[in-house]
Amino acid sequence: LSRRIWKMPVGQIPELRRARGRPQVRSDDDTRRLILDAAAKEFQANGYAATCMVDVGQQAGVSTKTMYRLIPTKADLFKSVVSDRIQRFVLALDAEALESVSLREGLERMLTAYGELTLEPETIAMTRLVLGESDRFPELAASFYELAIVRTTEAMVAWLKRHVRMEAFPVDDLTEAVGMLRGMMIMEPQRAAMLGRQRNLSAGEIASRARTCASIFVAGLTGVGDKG
Amino acid sequence: LSRRIWKMPVGQIPELRRARGRPQVRSDDDTRRLILDAAAKEFQANGYAATCMVDVGQQAGVSTKTMYRLIPTKADLFKSVVSDRIQRFVLALDAEALESVSLREGLERMLTAYGELTLEPETIAMTRLVLGESDRFPELAASFYELAIVRTTEAMVAWLKRHVRMEAFPVDDLTEAVGMLRGMMIMEPQRAAMLGRQRNLSAGEIASRARTCASIFVAGLTGVGDKG
């Protein structure tokens, strides 16, 4: 879970290598991969409005025709970039085969993974782009909300339900609780990084913050429960 | 504290009324007020780059000469708009004369005020503008970070130290704790509102969320302290 699976190498086979041997047929999946990596860079460098599909294709070394066949519009391209990143996070959560853990340990692991995803420079740049352009491009905002925020929240809730002993939840609204925890974990460091006021947290700092948040929250739920 | 002091009426005396009686001399403070209100609207409508000082002056009914005398640059204008809003929040906190309250009650009051400030549409629009433009205009990001984030955090920490019984802090790093609480309180609702995916929370919903966050956090600190 805490390995950075969403940053796994993406098989950018240089075009040069293909020139030598017999021509390889690239699968559509590999081609999509090249397009999405190029698109992520172009969006970050130029923003949404100024990013041009043809340029993305050129940067990816993919013909315009293939590009449009695989991804018909710029809105689709953006959605694919976001959902690709989120998908790796969700898959990493799903793939985890764990013995049942305590609520505190479960939250700590989950917050560590969430912190690593959301405090990474590329995610920060993407989040900033969406927030900045959400007025002009409401469809960006809608996709980002559904794909990034709702989807990760659901994955986190499902993961907790699967791995944490059920009697351990002293809370009715697990979705709200997860939302509070996410904010506790990342709002201040993510905002400071977005505003260029703080270097990124190290893996150790993320893990330590996750531990603090999980400990306070679990002791807090238990304490509140005791009094209620 | 929970009254919306930062939204108090701002004495926008219509120019028409002045045309009748004898000419009134407007104080520089009143003129600044007119400029800042007009500037807030222009920044929201056009973003930072496209906002023009001369237009702001015209909207405010203030001569360009006076405008530049009071506020020399667009960067100063933006800083003034942000710091004006924050200042009202800080003043509201400072003005509060309270008997010493429990940690839980103190955090609840403080989070309610913070939620009212940060979940208001104008604050959300301003935050979104800064995050979106922070790449192109790092000086905006720097001002916003210092004036809005650092300043409110300091005010909240100072307020807690003044009003909450000192023996009640089972925490070393009060600044970090306040940062976690802020995130717990506003990140998800503010982001949903920024992305246009959720109506604004009502005053009652803000108060209720503040109560939940304060209760969990305080019980959590106590529980964590008990175990340590």
Q: Can you tell me about this structure?
A:
The structure is a homodimer of 228-residue chains. Chain A is mostly helical. Helices cover 71% and strands 0% of the residues of chain A. Chain A has helices spanning 15-20, 28-46, 53-60, 64-70, 74-95, 103-118, 121-133, 138-163, 174-194, 203-227. Mean pLDDT of chain A is 83; it is low at 1-19. The interface between A and B is large, with 44 and 44 residues.
SSE diagram, text form:
2 copies of one chain form a homodimer.
Chain A: H1 15-20, H2 28-46, H3 53-60, H4 64-70, H5 74-95, H6 103-118, H7 121-133, H8 138-163, H9 174-194, H10 203-227
Helix pairs in contact in A: 2-3, 2-5, 5-8, 6-8, 6-9, 6-10, 7-8, 8-9
Ends apart, CA distance between termini of chain A: 35 Å
Overall pLDDT confidence of chain A: 83
Q: What profile does the largest beta sheet of chain A have?
A: none
Shape of chain A: elongated
* Most extensive chain interface and residues per partner: A-B, 44 and 44 residues
**Which quaternary structure do these chains form?**
homodimer
Order of helices and strands of chain A, N to C? HHHHHHHHHH
> In percent terms, what proportion of residues of chain A is strand?
under 5%
Number of helices of chain A: 10
- Structure summary, number of beta strands of chain A: 0
Radius of gyration of chain A: 20 Å
Structural class category of chain A:
mainly alpha
Could you name the ranges of chain A where pLDDT drops below 50 across 5 or more consecutive residues? 1-19
How much helicity do the residues of chain A have? Answer: over 70%
